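Fold these two proteins, one after the other.
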Amino acid sequence: MINDRWATATWIMGNNYRGSGYYGAYPPAYVPRIYSMFPESRKILHLFSGSLTDENVFKPSAEVRRLDLNPQYNPDYVRDAVSTGLPDNQFDLIMADPPYSKEDAEHYGKPLCNRNKVLAECHRILSADGCLVWLDQSQPMYSKTHWEWVGVVSVLRSTNHRVRAAFFFRPCK
């Protein structure tokens, strides 16, 4: 369902157990589905990008960047999402997939992120007409003076996988 203010859906991603082999990776076909919702996006940032490669995130006519704390996966920016050091109003679309729990963060060998601070940083680096897509198991707390919640998509990968949701936010005008 999509109208002039709100989008909601349930995506059943299918029984594809191959995935990337990386713990907590995006479900197969998730990235292309998100991109199809934002065809005008030209500058895209993947926060907590993990094992995403150029092949996984390719979008014709777009500049796609990856940010992660782990240099092992060769992201474009090896930085903390709390303080990216990137210019203001830089991106049209930010996709975030943080560790969901303390146990998940320990699995990655990194601290659990401070969601409030990451959201503040996303607000700073996102363009005024941009969109933040936050994939998580719970909706992050957000400031209604900074963000307008404009949609949610339930993401069901297959049996025996976590149910996640993609929350869509736009900067308040």
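Now the second one:
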Amino acid sequence: MSPITHLLVSWLVASATPLDRRDRALVTLAGVVPDVDGLGAVAEILTRDAERPLDWWSRYHHVLCHNVGFALAVGFLAWILSSRRAVATSLALVALHLHLLGDIVGARGPDGYQWPIPYLLPFSDRGELTWSGQWALNAWPNFVITGVALAATFHLAWRRGRSPVELISRRADGLFVETLRHRFGPPAA
């Protein structure tokens, strides 16, 4: 799934129960942060014509941050940083695992590579998770999931008065919500 889809789904998870802005941000970040292991693509692109190119993306994407060890680290950080510890940590782990599930079912590359998830790392290198029916990153199911998540996000923004934009700017979020309410009317009390 795309990073945008992971962001929307994670924010929806964060919005499942009353959390303050900081805890919503932590839960949302937990569902997006596994893709930090994809930043190796920058080094790989920059060194592709070098004598010794770096293969950090090819080797480590869906490995370093797509496993139970990373999930435990994220859960620990959520516990330490959140105000509603049990709820925020639980939702952070749900968001992270939804990310992994999304990658298992819908992240096949254009070359047909299935992007297995070595879930048991760093405790074991056995048992990579794959699904033989994995659809391509640009396949219609990913567009449908993104569309549904976007519609749910807009609806919640209109109804509750906050959106993922709050993660960047409260003012911009207020303008976004105001625009939605101007276009669709105020929510019923």
